[in-house]
Design a protein that fits this description.
Order of helices and strands of chain A: HHHH
Largest sheet of chain B: none
Strand content of chain B: under 5%
Oligomer: heterodimer
Largest interface: A-B, 51 and 55 residues
Structural class of chain B: mainly alpha
Structural class of chain A: mainly alpha
Largest sheet of chain A: none
Distance between the termini of chain A: 65 Å
Chain lengths: 111, 227
């Protein structure tokens, strides 16, 4: 448990709420600016930014809302380490998917 | 600070008779359930990644390319204007806000304040219902008015619709289950069940589940609406 008082915890929650709302508003604004052609750079940079911001939001939700920051460290480690498999999963399957695309294009170019 | 306590008391912690994580059995188990549920959702989202990578990026009038979310999601209920991503912004804010009200319910539970728990749980349920209702609007709009089905859609690759209905449907099911369990907890709170038990741990466990639903939405929102 945390050693913060009831009122401090209350304030903390609303602060996290503001952070999450701000990040979401920022993402939407960026998406709309890109859609209407205001942003000159390639979409891939925006995608990387969205991914980082989503992980940031996940961090805030897990650490503050789900209280993981205030649990004992062994418990946090037990919960977070299985997610390392997902890093492999995301890389491996997106790689595989782009291989399907190039295999299909190769096939189509021959027949 | 917590870490030093954990190391100095390690022997004491593992000598039995106490929870090693200083957390109740029920809370550890709901965490383990959430980890397994994360892998279910991750399986679905990673399939999305693989299938999307096997399609061409968006091209106008190419039915095999991946749809542009800004073209798909622009309807708003009761208003005839079309603004890309406006309504899903509202849905996302609803879910964030209902997560906050849930934290407040848990905090009031710690303070053993029954009226506070009732009030904040009520707002959480309201937020959940608003979200599920919004999803029902979005689905019916896409199916009936835009013609997006499991067989195809006017925006691009058919897989987009299939994955959209599968993943947002599975997420919506989680929200609905959460709303049901929160409603049950509200009636139990009103009956004074948790005051009799002497603790509001049930609200904490439901809170963990509810935040998890919000957490998953962050990534569903990322892949379908932003990327």
């Amino acid at each position: 448990m945390s050693d913060l008082s009831h009122d401090e915890m209350k304030m903390r929650v609303w602060r996290v709420c503001r952070v999450l709302a701000f990040i979401t508003a920022f993402e939407i604004t960026a998406a709309l600016l890109y859609y209407y052609g205001v942003l000159p750079f390639s979409k891939i940079w925006l995608d990387i930014l969205y991914a980082i911001l989503s992980v940031l939001k996940a961090y805030y939700i897990m650490s503050e809302f789900m209280h993981l920051k205030y649990e004992l460290k062994p418990m946090t480690i037990t919960i977070l380490t299985p997610f390392l498999f997902l890093v492999w999963g995301i890389i491996a399957f997106i790689w595989e998917g782009s291989y399907w695309l190039s295999a299909r294009e190769l096939w189509n170019s021959h027949f | 600070m917590e870490t030093t306590t954990a190391t100095t008391n390690a022997k004491e912690l593992w000598s039995g008779g106490d929870s090693p994580f200083r957390v109740s059995y029920g809370k550890v188990m709901i965490w383990y359930f959430l980890i397994s549920d994360t892998f279910t959702f991750a399986g679905l989202l990673i399939s999305y990644g693989a299938i999307r990578a096997s399609h061409l990026p968006h091209q106008d009038n190419n039915p095999l390319s991946w749809p542009n979310p800004n073209d798909v999601f622009k309807a708003i209920p009761f208003i005839h204007a079309e603004i890309p991503l406006a309504y899903v912004t509202f849905m996302t804010f609803t879910l964030i806000f209902s997560s906050v009200t849930m934290v407040r319910a848990v905090q009031e539970g710690h303070a053993m304040n029954r009226k506070g728990v009732e009030k904040w749980l009520f707002f959480t349920i309201l937020g959940g219902l608003t979200f599920v209702g919004s999803q029902a609007f979005e689905w019916s709009h896409l199916i009936l008015e835009r013609g997006m089905t499991l067989h195809g859609n006017p925006f691009g690759a058919a897989s987009f619709g299939q994955l959209f209905f599968l993943i947002t449907g599975f997420h919506g099911l989680h929200v609905s289950v959460g709303v049901g369990m929160n409603t049950w907890a509200l009636t139990q709170t009103a009956k004074g069940e948790f005051d009799r038990r002497g603790h509001y741990e049930m609200i904490e466990k439901l809170g963990l589940y509810w935040h998890f639903v919000d957490l998953v939405w962050v990534f569903v929102f990322l892949v379908f609406y932003l990327l």
